[in-house]
């Protein structure tokens, strides 16, 4: 099988790593990729938002499967020309990707499908926003309606700051605050059959102790020893299957990865958000535990044959990933610094390093090239061991101004 992966992040590196370990995959390509992905796949400098260019590349390569990683190309509709050309593609088309592309659309689908979520208002004027804020009271939750790379959500008890964010965004969803631990549950679907993966938890805030601004994600772990038994079955029945059924009934079937961001509140499980793709950094730990070869599963989703697949097999081991970010992330990341210690981090098989914002430097080196730079990942008998190994990897890597959280999975490992 020849596979083409679209994207540049650590999620795509994790996908490429798993695909490269699948004996069914004979050729692996990535566009545009990064310095780490280049070690397992052939890179192609194609604009990932240009559906015609991606389709032309897939044709030229004779790709049997295209996997679209990030939300931006999915929401831009890059999967549509691929499907129209008869190329199997993992990832929803433009309309179904609105589940992530518009918070208001997602709320509408959830209401129609009876999926439990926070009560909310869509607001477009300052007065509407002010009324919605007062209706719910503090803490306030204000979400940019459109894509914002995980940075469009403000949760604050400062009413003026909440209102300012609403006005700055224009169109927002304002909703009730959901209290309780968060869980990310991914499901692979072909538009009809829904196959949940194992739950993970990520860490959205920049600093230890969940302080600082929201980011794309600073680390993750799986499994969740504290999660209630039966959580996956419950979410499949009350959230994932009804959402997939609703989109199919609307004539815009969702095929690809449905990501449910959940809050386990005292009043039950609620959806915080949907994403239309693998989450980053949770993918790094979920795929580290998947034993079933990945390519066949993604192809079955693309071809609508997921119902005929054997149940997925999982490792009992735990996985932890720690994101190393540049100085200034998330506001103004500094780039262009040489990264030291990449080989040392992997030398004894303790950890493996997934690249996000990196690029090849002069004389074979690797330079920082984005906010989130690396995802250092490790597997262990339990979370404590996986955590120790991941942080041992982190300790061997350095670049100017690099920052990471020191408390990823700490509480769960105790
Ligand atoms: P989202 O992009 O919708 O996942 O929001 C980013 C983060 O903001 C989430 O992971 C939560 O930590 C927080 N958040 C979003 N919506 C709510 C809510 N209704 N109540 C409490 N926290 C929220």
Keywords:
single chain, 414 residues, alpha+beta, five-stranded parallel beta sheet, five-stranded antiparallel beta sheet, 22 strands, binds adenosine monophosphate
Q: Helix and strand layout, with pairings?
A:
Elements: E1 2-7, H1 10-20, E2 27-32, E3 42-43, H2 51-61, E4 65-68, H3 71-75, H4 79-84, E5 89-90, H5 98-101, H6 103-113, E6 120-123, H7 126-136, E7 140-144, E8 153-156, H8 159-169, E9 172-175, E10 182-189, E11 194-196, E12 201-202, E13 205-207, E14 211-214, E15 219-222, H9 231-249, E16 256-265, E17 268-275, H10 282-289, H11 294-303, E18 318-325, H12 342-346, E19 352-355, E20 358-360, E21 366-368, E22 372-380, H13 383-395, H14 410-413
Parallel strand pairs: 1-2, 1-4, 2-3, 4-5
Antiparallel strand pairs: 6-9, 7-8, 7-9, 10-11, 10-16, 12-15, 13-14, 15-18, 16-17, 18-22, 19-22, 20-21
Helix pairs in contact: 1-10, 6-9, 7-8
Bound molecules: adenosine monophosphate.
Adenosine monophosphate binds next to strand 7, strand 8 and strand 17.
Structure description:
The chain is of the alpha+beta class and 414 residues long. It contains 14 helices and 22 strands. The protein has helices at residues 10-20, 51-61, 71-75, 79-84, 98-101, 103-113, 126-136, 159-169, 231-249, 282-289, 294-303, 342-346, 383-395, 410-413; strands spanning 2-7, 27-32, 42-43, 65-68, 89-90, 120-123, 140-144, 153-156, 172-175, 182-189, 194-196, 201-202, 205-207, 211-214, 219-222, 256-265, 268-275, 318-325, 352-355, 358-360, 366-368, 372-380. The strands form 6 sheets. Strands 3-2-1-4-5 form a 5-stranded parallel β-sheet, sandwiched between helices. The chain has a 5-stranded antiparallel β-sheet with strand order 12-15-18-22-19. Strands 6-9-7-8 form a 4-stranded antiparallel β-sheet, with helices on both faces. α6 (103-113) packs across α9 (231-249) and α7 (126-136) runs antiparallel to α8 (159-169). The chain starts with a strand and ends with a helix. The model has no long low-confidence stretch (mean pLDDT 96). Bound molecules: adenosine monophosphate (AMP). Adenosine monophosphate binds at residues 118, 141, 143, 150, 153, 155, 175, 177-178, 182, 204, 214, 261, 272-273.
């Amino acid at each position: 099988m020849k596979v083409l992966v679209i994207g540049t992040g650590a999620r795509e590196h994790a996908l490429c790593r798993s695909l490269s370990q699948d004996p069914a995959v004979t050729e692996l390509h990535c566009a545009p990729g990064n310095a780490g992905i280049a070690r397992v796949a052939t890179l192609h400098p194609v604009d990932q938002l240009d559906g015609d260019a991606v389709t032309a590349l897939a044709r030229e390569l004779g790709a049997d499967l295209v996997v679209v990683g990030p939300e931006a190309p999915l929401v831009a509709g890059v999967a549509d020309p691929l499907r129209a050309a008869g190329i199997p593609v993992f990832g929803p088309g433009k309309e179904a990707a609105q589940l992530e592309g518009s918070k208001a659309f997602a709320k509408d689908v959830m209401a129609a499908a009876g999926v439990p979520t926070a009560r909310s208002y869509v607001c477009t004027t300052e007065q509407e926003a002010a009324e919605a804020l007062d209706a719910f009271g503090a803490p306030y939750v204000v979400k940019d309606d459109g894509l914002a790379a995980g940075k469009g959500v403000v949760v604050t008890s400062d009413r003026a700051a909440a209102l300012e964010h609403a006005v700055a965004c224009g169109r927002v969803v304002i909703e009730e605050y959901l209290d309780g631990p968060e869980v990310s549950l991914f499901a692979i679907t072909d538009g009809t059959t829904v196959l949940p993966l194992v739950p993970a938890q990520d860490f959205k805030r920049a600093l230890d102790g969940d302080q600082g601004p929201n980011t794309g994600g600073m680390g993750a772990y799986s499994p969740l020893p504290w999660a209630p038994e039966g959580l996956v079955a419950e979410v499949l029945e009350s959230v994932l299957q009804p959402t997939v059924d609703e989109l199919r009934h609307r004539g815009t079937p969702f095929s690809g990865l449905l990501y449910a961001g959940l809050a386990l509140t005292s009043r039950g499980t609620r959806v915080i958000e949907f994403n239309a793709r693998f989450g980053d950094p949770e993918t790094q730990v979920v795929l580290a535990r998947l034993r079933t070869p990945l390519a066949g599963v993604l192809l079955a989703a693309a071809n609508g044959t997921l119902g005929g697949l054997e149940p997925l097999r999982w490792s009992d081991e735990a996985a932890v990933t720690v994101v190393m970010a540049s100085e200034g992330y998330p506001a103004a990341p500094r780039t262009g610094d040489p990264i030291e210690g990449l080989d040392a981090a992997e030398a004894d098989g303790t950890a493996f390093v997934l690249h996000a914002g990196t690029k090849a430097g002069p004389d074979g080196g690797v330079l920082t090239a984005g906010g989130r730079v690396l995802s250092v990942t490790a597997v262990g008998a339990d979370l404590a061991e996986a955590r120790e190994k991941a942080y041992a990897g982190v300790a061997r890597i350095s670049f100017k101004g690099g920052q990471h959280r020191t408390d990823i999975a700490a509480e769960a490992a105790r």
